[in-house]
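REVIEWER CHECKLIST
Item 1: Sequence provided? yes
Item 2: Single chain? yes
Item 3: Sequence as submitted:
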Amino acid sequence: MSRILGVALAQVAPVTGDPQATFAKFSREVRSLKALSPSIDLVVFPELYLSAFGSFDARHPVGYLDRLAEPIPGPTTDAVCRLAADTGLWIVPGSIPERSAKGVHNTAVAISPQGEVVASYRKIFPWMPYETSVPGDTYVTFDIPQVGRFGLAICYDGWVPEISRTLAWMGAEVIIQPTYTRTSDREQELVLARANAITNQVYVLNPNIGGLFGTGRSIATDPEGRVLAQGGAGEEFLTFHLDLDLVATTRERGTLGLNPLWKQLRDAPPPFPPATEGYDKGQIMTGLGPLHPARAGSTGA
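Item 4: Structure as written out by the authors:
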């Protein structure tokens, strides 16, 4: 039995500063995808989309996301659950600010066609020093029955190869990575999406915010690093099908029939010093300044 999944990446823009209007737009977009593409099973939206976040907008003072933060489950996830149950779709609505006892996290959720939150992932590697969300400490995967296993990551997580490697080690065959990038490093992120796919033999689904200055270029790659779909700068939907049997074939026979890297990692694992000795022990750390230059000399956390 083949493991085929229809996917839509939504490269869309929020109604800046208006979460209620943005959710209404989101609901219309999900319903439109369901009506226009009946073979779609999973829809994925960008990071912080439902928060109507505009990071360079003067109307967003410091603390905007803190004020919107809510628990999970909460009003936003409850509303997405109702939409998923109504449309019969798997939905990853990007990420939302989640409030917990530890503070505010940047959290992605996966919601089933039955209207249940089946996975919740707190971003492990926030974009410091700009992003103030509290880092998560748990890697998260979930299963779509009779299809395969999916891992969750968010935006800057893609710059840390250990995150994708860990998700693949946990059995993920697809990494879903909602993103909000409005800066010039999007070009590097496109390279990283393909690199993470190649080095872990996984699909990578990386939708970015669209229609705002400096945004777009969502990307989906296959487990050998081929680009399945790539967006432009505006708002658009990228639709395609994943064949998860290709992941199994690539891992068993090797990328391009040449590189069965997971078998080698199993049978002849290299001694990775950063993992065994600690990142702070590396020579590269010598002479590096503080992560937060403005806080140099401060004894605060």
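Item 5: Key structural point noted by reviewer: Residues 19-36 form the longest helix (18 residues).
Item 6: Recommendation: ____
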